[in-house]
Amino acid sequence: MRPDVWIPLLVLLSGATVARTLLVSARKLPATCARCGLRLERRALGEPVCRCGL
Ligand SMILES: [Zn+2]
Question: How far does residue 21's CA lie from ligand 1's centre (Å)?
Fold first, then answer.
């Protein structure tokens, strides 16, 4: 392939990867319960989660 074709494509792809990484790190802080402070959704097996609503 010609370099003037795949270089902009490569830049576009790496830009998308960076944008996705930023999105994921922005969501690193999960929603937590205001009463017990535990996460509302389990992310790992066995992790303590909020049971206030039960
Ligand atoms: Zn709770």
Answer: 29
